Amino acid sequence: MSSERVPTARKKAAARLRMALGLFETGVEMMRQKIRRDHPALGDHEVEARLGSWLRERPGAEFGDAVGRPAVWPRRSGRDAPGEPPRGGAPRPLVEPGRSS
What we know:
Strand content: under 5%
Helix content: 40-55%
């Protein structure tokens, strides 16, 4: 078997990234269509403004799509991570004071 036919780790990673970006673009287009369907009177500019707002704010997924607690990345070595109990004390709140979870 020729080494040209065996995908390298870099080629596999590139293919996965292309697939992820393609899925992202498909999701954005689906949301654009949903906005148009829900608000047929809106012009192109307003649809794009609402789409941009949705991408920035992500209602229902403000901290991401994964299960778990929000965390700062990269992690701070040797220090307490946000949301983790500080050494010798009570747990810190997971959300900023004044924000609902």
